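Re: the 409-residue chain
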Amino acid sequence: MADLAINGGPKACDVAWPRWPVWSDEERQALNGVLESGEWWYGEKVHEFEARFAAFQNARFGITTTSGTTALEASLLALGVGAGDEVIVPPYTFIATVSAVLRVNAIPIFADILPETLCIDPSDVERKITPRTKAVIPVHVGGMIADMDRLLALAHQHNLVILEDACHAWGSQWRGKGAGAVGNCGVFSFQVSKNITAGEGGIILTDDEDLADLCRSFTNCGRGKDKPWYQHFLAGSNLRMTEFQGAILLAQLSRLEEQTLRRQANAEVLTQGLQQIPGIRTLPAEPRMTRRSYHFYVFRLDETRAGVSRDRFLQALCAEGVPASAGWPYPLYQNPLFAVKGDGPDHCPRSCPYYGREIDYTQVRCPVTEQICRDAVWIPHTALLAGAEAMEKVVAAVAKVVAQAPSLR
């Protein structure tokens, strides 16, 4: 076997990886069409995209927003989550999942994740429920859907609402139902790194017409459905999407299913190869998922068996030509935001009258999340758009690094 690339040998993975975002004349023509029409504002293209994306995810209603973050905030408001309410969230996610809770003056309560899915653990959710719990936000990490059967049962038992953070799950399905349409509502992001993108943007999906109308009002300056333009019923905000974004997203949506299926097929190639390598742990399939999108592919490194640290392994793997990363480096509760103590507006709602008590996030421990942050390896969705031969080269590169791990010490 040739020397590792990090030690001067040839790369095992000499692949010209697909660039992102993927676009074509379809996007160019759509943008030019909006430009030349003079109708640039929230209108026909946005409404068409809302309807088509909702249908793609098997939802009745879609309400576009400026981002996945603002979609979360508007959804929480529409669901009635407010000052002093507790919202159970996982710590293995992007900050927006939790900052949205803080923005509505509610209190994030962290529940650990499952090592098999990297999604929130329903058993830990159940342990964290109190009389003040109002909502649970399951995050469908990397396109893997959280255990919605158990979460919905808990919500029914304790009169909670379920807001799905589906910002990695465009195309994923749970028992034939699209992600984001399984709970009370769900949100998606179209930020530039996402599997379908307009640079920025978001959407809320729901089957509940009243909830959809509330979400629309919160995103449209508090206006009422079919009411006069200058009548405002809620303290809403301007979170509307533009026609340019709607036009791009319609073009992106036209190729999303094919890309989703290609990523899914390539992920299966990776799993079949990687699970044969000592020290590599792949994640099991979820039989209740009838389609799986991949915002990234994840495997875990057993540092003891592999004989190398995760960070050193990543350095060697990237040198071999594999676009891999460690992902989220630590649980959200270890961010500086949650280490702040004291009084004042910067510390609301944790130390403000809304909650009526102090909460010390420095004492939070979610051991599964902490371990995942130490041993996870992410391969981005863009790599999964390459061919099966490229996936085999990724497997060969991982095997090469593990086989020569002693040279990395």
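The CA atoms of residues 344 and 352 lie 8 Å apart.
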